[in-house]
Specification:
By secondary structure, this protein is an alpha+beta fold. It contains one helix and three strands, in the order βαββ. The relative contact order is 0.37.
C-alpha cells in the first residue's frame, strides 16, 4: 500500500500559466521525489498600469511517500 502526501505551492512566470506550472514542478522536484500529479487549484495575474506583468498558479502536488 502506498501513502500519498499532498502539498500546496504557489508559482509564477512572466510568460504564461503553462510556464508557471512548469516552474512549480521544477522547484518542487528539487526536494520532493515520486511526484505523481499536479492539480492546478487556481490561476491569477498581476497587473501594472492595466498590463499583465506576471501569471501565477496555486497547485496541489501529490507524491508517494517512501
Amino acid at each position: 500500500m502506498s501513502i500519498v502526501k499532498v502539498i500546496e505551492v504557489i508559482a509564477s512566470s512572466e510568460s504564461g500559466f503553462e510556464d508557471a506550472v512548469r516552474n512549480a514542478v521544477t522547484e518542487v522536484s528539487k526536494t520532493i521525489k515520486n511526484i505523481d500529479s499536479v492539480y492546478v487549484k487556481d490561476f491569477k495575474v498581476h497587473l501594472k498600469n492595466n498590463q499583465i506583468t506576471s501569471y501565477g498558479v496555486i497547485c496541489k502536488v501529490s507524491f508517494r511517500v517512501e
